[in-house]
Amino acid sequence: MRPNLCGTHDLESNTHPCLWMQAGVVRKKRCDRNYACSSCPFDRALNKVSAENDRLAPQGVSPQGKRARITHWAERLKRLPRANRPCIHHMKGRIGFRLCTNDYQCPTCEFEQYFDDQHTVRAVVTPLDISHIRGFRIPQGYYLHQGHAWAMLEEGPYVRIGMDDFSLRLLGPVDAIEAPLVGKRVRQDEPDTALRKGNKEAMVMSPVSGIVTDINPQLREKGQLAAESPYSDGWVMRVHAENLKEDLKHLMLHAETVDFLDKEVDDLYRLIEAEVGPMATDGGVLAPDISSHLPQVEWNRLAGRFLRT
User: Fold this and answer.
1) CA 154, CA 121: separation in Å to the nearest integer?
2) How far lies 306's CA from each of 57, 71, 228, in Å?
3) What is the pLDDT of residue 282?
4) Distance CA 28, CA 14 (A)
5) Per-residue pLDDT at 10
């Protein structure tokens, strides 16, 4: 299979193709993790197979079947003329076409360091796919904490964190979101981020443990930005996770997220009906600022119930 060098992320109608697909190692594989390869089981599996093939080659042992053609995606791209080797950040759709000038040795690449310093933190997160669960949005590939904070894996141990659509619509556009200061240690399941609306405050639990490396300063003055773009411009902070593998075991992903949000909506409807009476079953969705339409239910009560703090 010929490597995909066009950078359009639409090879064979496969939006956001996996790096292994772009290099031509596999025929069709779509990335659903925002190119956070370190957390991807598919990437780990192919890395294991390609490493085993590399180990057997000097012994004169030839793998059989489909396994025989699996080489690491970077090694496959090195077979191309140097003028045709795309930078990994281009392959991930983060920049326009750029050549790889360091044989895919990213840790020692000057551009890699420049990109990490200048682009990674400031880049707006762009969810690959959005699922709609009874009127509320949740992106595919984002981990969700029971307190409605999301975690999106980036390169290595870095995790970007924000609040989900459900919580921000439940509490209404907030005036400010105050994340912990850069350098502070946060711990999974402990409240560390404050939502402020007038004289009211609610705390949000961190989905992972680690050191805060960056925060979104706009949210201190424009908290409503989070409600407008909860999964992109509205990100709250970035954390260098200390025990990411263990933390992820306690978060929800894919079907678990769907089931959880479905139950949360049921609980919200039950709470509303207990206060204001039966609701019309006309298939409509709840208003963006749910708390403002529920004067019978205290804001702090809603925050405590659904943020679990």
Assistant:
1) 10
2) 55, 47, 20
3) 44
4) 7
5) 47
* Residues in Cβ contact with 290 at an 8 Å cutoff, skipping those fewer than 6 apart: 169, 170, 171, 172, 268, 302
Q: Do residues 216 and 223 lie in contact, with contact meaning Cβ atoms separated by under 8 Å?
A: no
Rounded to an integer, what distance in angstroms lies between the CA atom of residue 35 and that of residue 231?
16
- Give the C-alpha distances (Å, rounded to integers) separating 261 from 134, 151, 252, 265: 9, 16, 10, 6
State the pLDDT at residue 257: 95
The upper half-sphere exposure of residue 293, i.e. CA atoms within 13 Å in the direction of its Cβ, equals 12
pLDDT for the residue 128: 66
Q: Is 158 exposed, middle or buried (0-12, 13-18, 19+ CB in 10 A)?
A: buried
pLDDT value, residue 204: 97
Helix axes 299-307, 255-276, angle to 10 degrees: 150
CA separation for the pair 242, 252 (Å, rounded): 19
Structure tokens that stand for 158 in this block: 């870095």
> According to the model, what pLDDT value does residue 281 have?
43
Regions of the chain short of the pLDDT cut 70: 1-14, 118-125, 128, 278-285
Identify whether the C-beta of residue 253 lies closer than 8 Å to the C-beta of residue 259.
Answer: no
